[in-house]
Structure formats: C-alpha cells, structure tokens
Write a structure and sequence with these properties.
By secondary structure, the chain is of the alpha/beta class. Helix content is 32%, strand content 18%. It is built from 9 helices and 8 strands. An 8-stranded mixed beta sheet has the order 1-2-4-3-5-6-7-8, with helices on both faces. Helix 4 crosses helix 5 (146-154). The longest helix has 18 residues, at 23-40. The radius of gyration is 17 Å and the shape is globular. The two termini are 22 Å apart. The model is unreliable at 1-8 and 281-285 (pLDDT under 50).
Length: 285
C-alpha cells in the first residue's frame, strides 16, 4: 500500500461520488429495492445487543426457516460508517433466497454516535450471534465501501475471545473497500469519525494481522477514484502474502455504488463468484 498521501486532492480521491454523477439515484434505488424485498420476502429482525441499532435482518429460504440454512451471506452496508442502515441493504436477499441461501443485513450504530472501534465490535457481536444460532451453516462475509472495511476488520479478530477455535466464516467478499484509514484523517469524512493518525492506523486492516486467511474476493469498479483502486489492490496483495487465496479484479463499467447490484446477480462475475464461495466451490480465481 502506498503512503498516507496521494497525488491530487484527498477530499476528491476519497469522495466516491466525484466519479459517479448518478450516485444519488443509485443509493435511492438501494432503499426502494430493499423496500420491495421486505414486502415480498419474509424476514426476522434479530437483536445482537442492547442498543436499538444492534440488530440483523435475516432472510432465510422457506424450506430452512425452522432449521439450519445451508449457507449464509452476512452483509455490512457502506456509507462511510455514518450513513444508511440494514434496511437499505435488503435487496441482495431475493437472488439468494431463491437459491436456498440465507442472507443477513447487519445494522450498526452510525458515527458520530459511535466511534469506529464500537462499530467494529458491534459487527463482531452480530456475526457471533449468527454463528451461535447457526453452528452448522457455511457463513461468508460481504461488505461494500465502509462495509468492506468492517468485513476485513473481522478477518483480523482472534475469535477465541468469543470461545471459538477459529473464525466462524469461511469466505469474504470485499467490494470497493478502504483498508488504510490514515488518509481520511485530513478529509471531510473525518468530521464524524474524529480519528487521529494513530487510531486510524490501529483501525486499518492493512496494519493488522490477517488472522483469518479465508478465501477472499477483492473487487472494485472501473469508475472509481485512483485512491480506492490502490486501496483494493494493496489489500489484495497483503492478504495474498499472508497466505489467503484471493481473487482480485476490476468490474468493468461499474462505479463505487452500482457495483453492489452485481453481488448476488449470477449473470455477473462478482455474483457468480459469490455464489461459488457460498456453495463451497472455490474455482473462481
């Protein structure tokens, strides 16, 4: 990974909308698509903590609602840790439930109401709750943008602190993520996060041990800023050097926002690769 400073204006480099002029309509479609899914597909709201924001929206195939799902995709939404919610991240469930795969959208407290450290802990607790509830289920983590950072952070957790011999997940899908938080310290993003360089480094997967070197997809859109592309390539290299099997690639014609529609679309490379991870077939590299 390159150093903390990049050429050009950091605010622009870390503003994905600067190269995605239609981002507002895309984000609005997250909400509308998720609303349709919530009306169409039965779901359960499961609490994993005491705060109102600590819940998971779980979508399970009808045949598996009273049993262990075969596979479960656990998704962490983006929004720079300060926007959106699990209710904006339900639309990927349709394609999975139709294939007898469960889907869980994780909600967490948004900054500035919680620091990033607390948000990471909440995501750990959510996955721990799901793993305890479904001990026989194959779990794959996924996240977009800040959600990819959260999924990557969970790959650096020593899960024995939760009483587990190993991580409860067997794969990860990291989409357009940020893995070195240090450049954010001097940008507009940090107004809500209040990070200093030391905390930013501690909260960067790039500078934490890759404890769970599971099979991982690291991808980004063609229409991303150079900073986001460098971040993804750098973290993919880091995981590979740590011993993980990594498939890293750029998704043509997609930007930071609309790339998410490929996550569970079997006609796309990303969707096909995700389904292979969930099904136990790792021939996706």
């Amino acid at each position: 990974m390159e150093g903390i400073l990049f050429d050009g204006d950091l605010d622009r480099e870390y503003s994905p909308s600067s190269v995605a002029p239609n981002f507002g309509a895309i984000v609005a479609s997250y909400a509308s698509g998720s609303k349709d899914t919530l009306q169409r597909v039965p779901f359960a709201r499961l609490s994993y903590g005491e705060r109102d924001e600590e819940y998971v929206l779980l979508f399970a195939p009808q045949s598996q609602r009273e049993s262990q799902p075969r596979s479960l995709l656990v998704f962490f939404h983006g929004g720079y840790w300060q926007e959106l919610s699990a209710y904006d991240a339900c639309f990927p469930a349709d394609a999975l439930v139709a294939r007898d795969i469960a889907y869980a959208a994780v909600n967490y407290t948004l900054a500035p109401h919680a620091p990033v450290e607390v948000i990471v802990a909440q995501c750990c607790n959510a996955v721990n709750m799901l793993a305890q509830r479904f001990p026989a289920t194959r779990i794959v983590l996924a996240g977009s943008s800040a959600g990819a950072h959260l999924a990557a952070m969970l790959m650096s957790v020593y899960w024995r602190t939760f009483g587990m011999a190993k991580a409860p997940f067997s794969g990860a899908v990291l989409i357009s993520g940020i893995y070195d938080l240090r450049p954010l310290v001097t940008t507009y993003v940090n107004k809500a996060l209040a990070l200093d360089v030391g905390r930013a480094q501690q909260l960067s997967p790039m500078f934490r041990p890759a404890v769970s070197t599971c099979d991982t997809i690291v991808c980004w859109g063609e229409h991303e800023t150079s900073a986001f592309k460098r971040q993804s390539r750098g973290y993919a290299d880091y995981l590979g050097q740590a011993g993980a099997r990594v498939s890293a690639y750029e998704v043509p014609e997609k930007n930071h926002f609309d790339i998410l529609f490929d996550l569970t679309n079997p006609e796309s490379r990303l969707g096909s690769d995700t389904l292979k991870l969930l099904g136990g077939n790792h021939e996706y590299a």
